[in-house]
Amino acid sequence: MDKDSLEFSKDLRKISKEIPLNNIKINDEFWSKYIKLAMEVVIPYQWEAINDRIEDAEPSHAIKNFRIAAGLETGEFHGMVFQDSDVSKWLEAVGFSLQTHPDSELEKNADEVIDILELAQRSDGYLNTYFILKEPDNRWTNLAECHELYCAGHFFEAAVAYYNATNKRKVLDIACKFADYIDATFGPEEGKIHGYDGHPEVELALFKLYKVTENEKYLKLSKYFLDERGAKPDFFDMQWEKRGRKDFWQGGINREWGKKYYQTHLPIRKQSAAEGHAVRVVYMCMGMADVAAETGDSELFKACENLWKNIVSKRMYITGGIGSTSIGESFTFDYDLPNDTVYAETCASIGLAFFAHRMLMIEPRSEYADVMERALYNTIIGGMSQDGKGFFYVNPLEVRPEACEKNPTKHHVKPVRQKWFTCACCPPNITRTLTSLGRYIYTVNDDIVYANLYIGGKADINVGNNEIRIIQETEYPWEEKVLIKVGTKEKTKFTLALRIPGWCGKAEVKVNSEVINIEEIKLNGYAMVNREWRDGDKVELILKMPILRMKANPLVSADIGKVAIQRGPLVYCLEEADNGPNLHEIYLPKEAELEACFEADLLGGIMVLKAEAKRISNNSKWKDQLYSSKIKEEYDSINIKFVPYYSWANRGTGEMIVWVREK
């Protein structure tokens, strides 16, 4: 950490502020279509899905569970133990959408759901349809496996988003009643449960509830759940013994391995490596960062830094994916990043982007925004088809459809996006990310406005006592130029901090056509343009986008001798649709030049990369031989085409690879 960062970190509570979502209007060639898709297609599609009205999709039963619990229907609980969270994430996405695009019909649907939730809530505040309908006497008896606090957390997040959008108190009152009940149930006091949830989520959600209600008991409870994690004796072991060593999931979880799976192997302040279930790790880190910043807890923030560094320097895929194995959807060990058996759950990349944003709020360093951008432009939008009706749970970097079908170790990898899932956490997670995208573009710290992402649109920002407007115009990520216009009623002195991405070897800045020396004003990866701004001032930022041959650390055995191609924030891949089958036969010569070419009619308009490569040509000589010392490889010259990774699997079933042999 450099001197400037050390000075900044002395007061963690001097964190940056988010700009209210309704102050951001995105108008962007690249992102607007995704946001429109989320609002006009995906939210309605998911509404149909959670109401079991999508043909050929796995039934959800999520709304029906609540209707049964509310006494509006008869029947039994169906779905996963955490099925309630699908409704909450849909409702949260609705809240974000309404903050920027009011829609009376959508609001009516949400209000009807909230009415059902109110009827389903028990008189003491408890709200969880699985335990209300199926095991009413077993509340809180299996916190390791049954996601009660996880579901509560997602509901709290939804309540805050919807309240911020509509100012309607009903959903917030339901959430506070439930949170008050949890506060009365858990804590260090005698007679309370001294425990926590198996899936971190409620911690960050309680923090959001605290921020909107200013009720400090929610902050204290969030901190308690974090600090209690990893305490000895092990809480989950004690609950397991108490219920007669019975597991919820068939086969259970190995007790010792499970401690890492649940992030309970050590107190969180002593955890320095990302272990276990990847989504749980980054959700835990979000809560840690929130509480650290609010309370000024430098030790807790240091733990965040340690976990961050381990993830991004040793356990993250080049696409922003995390989680190397399907067994437990987990991290494994440093540099273990297989491409074809990878898990890289969409939710995990979303969690990583959210964690990056928290770190960026605490300490404005471009490395956090770089990772947030990497996840957004590659894995997160890649998790959804271009029609908004198909989704990836798993995001591989190498796919052979026959292997996915016939090799049991690869059954979790799908070569095409699925319509829906019984465990449908990823689709609504993508939607809530897209509908809240404006939150991540800018942050403000005193008289500094940080431009973290380059996305076209306008933002109304309060700097000091002055209102300013920042307008971005750009064709990013395809083109290198970003034009920023400043609007202000009177002269205003502030610093506009422009992120210079890590992939950008050279950048140029002009203010009203005057060239600015970036090296003289660069701090923590940002060009700090400080001046007295006048209405109509223009900043021209050029971010050079060379085509990069990225190499992995030699300790990543899966990628040795291979390169991944990147241009700007986008990682590229080869698809069978462009290059034929058996993509592993191709190698990219070191001297081959790569050319960028925009194809307006392909996949909604994308920049493709073309090169001359080599492919093995003498397969016929092998005939029935599996091994030989006599046959020499022969190659033909071929033309290959790379497409952005996020766009793969939108043209039927076929092979795909990110890492290509180079020689």
Concise account of the structure shown:
The chain is an alpha+beta fold and 663 residues long.
Task: Walk me through the structure.
GO terms for molecular function: beta-L-arabinofuranosidase activity. One of its GO terms (biological process) is carbohydrate metabolic process. With 663 residues, the chain is α+β, with helices and mostly antiparallel strands. The chain has three domains: 408 residues, Glycosyltransferase, CATH 1.50.10; 102 residues, Sandwich (Immunoglobulin-like); 115 residues, no CATH class. It is built from 20 helices and 23 strands. The protein has a seven-stranded antiparallel β-sheet with strand order 2-6-7-8-14-10-11, with no helix packed on it. The protein has a six-stranded mixed β-sheet with strand order 1-4-5-9-13-12. A hairpin with a 2-residue loop joins strand 6 and strand 7. Helix 3 crosses helix 5, helix 4 packs parallel to helix 7 and helix 13 runs parallel beside helix 15. The two termini are 37 Å apart.
